[in-house]
Structure prediction request, 421 residues.
Amino acid sequence: MPPTPPPSPRLLVSDHVAGRVSLLDLPDGRELAALDHRHLSEHAGFLALPGDRIACVDDRAGELLVLDPYGPDSGEPLVRRRIPVAVPAEHLATTPDGRRLVVTTGLGRNEEAWTGLLTAVDLDAPDGAVAVRVRGRTGEPGVTVLDGPSPLVVLRHREPGELLTHRHDDLMNAAPACPPADPVQRIALPDDDGHGDAHDPVGGRVFAAAGSGVHRARREGDGLTAERPLPWSADGRSGGRGYYLRLDPVRRVLWSCVRGGPGDPGQWPDWTNDAWWHRLDTGETGRLPLGPGLVFRLAVAERHIAYTRVHPDGDELILLAAPTGGPARPQVSARLPLPTMSGAPRRGQAPWDGVQRRAVAASPGGGLVAVSRGGHGEIHVFDADRAARIATLTVPTPLDDGGHLTLVTPGDGAHADPVGR
Prediction:
């Protein structure tokens, strides 16, 4: 009898505007399961958990969902757990073992921050107290959760910028009715513009992106010790700052996109964009140009890093060849055109209000990259190793605002990045 082929990659497609989640088989795009009336938080994103499971937050229902992309193969439901949490969800993170999670709240559709609720979750709580809500500082905090005998929750705040440390056990033992939660430690940040968080479980460090650089702190005992920040300048290129930060578990590299240029959002086509990277084990840092326009989030594939660039002269998928070892440095290996979007951002208007966008996804265990075409209900699938588009998939909703994607390959180790993306 021939051996059973390994399970194929899976793509979760969230249309947070229409309220639908599709589970697609790759690369053929067959829909294996769907969830209706589910409006996932695009900002908190998808969080990889051990066992190829995925966590996300339904902003309308106020629930943390644990999804099993391979459950439908054996007749099991796509949704394995539903846990009440405070919304609107801003950021989502977990300990590396996937047991203890934290959800922070942000603006949602409000002009000003109005809730400081924080939800701590223990998926294996022995006393049945699975989720507890407390009140902290109002704002839009980022979050990371450090493992250890006493797991630590680190909130990254701005205005004023600071890192606040809580013990996860303290949060889980809080009284009912959302009591205030005082941090056990505060570390002041020199900037009031923090945006972007990462956590390296191997080194026990947290990272926060801000205008002056990437601020670092390492766990020592039951607290954090601040370290010298990493500069955005590298390879003779300076200026700008990164608004997104991601751990690459394949190469143990931090990645961001450094944006520079005019401060007026209406002049976004003239923004400059550089890929910024920092090797955690050697301390080497680099920077290389991607081109003008709107570049934001990125995706980590087995041998590549994928960025999308939106520009009035044409959009593209940019692939960076990213070696896993040795002295070779990342370099742009391909620029692949993307079909235009009706309703794409235009010069003279902000590129994120009432316009179509793109989401990008990949798996650290494979070579596929998926890119959405906002407003068209399409996802384009590329083979990064061949630098070629291999499929165009469709879903029954338009994917307004670009939707949100996550790509899963069995055993890909994506949970080594314990921050929602």
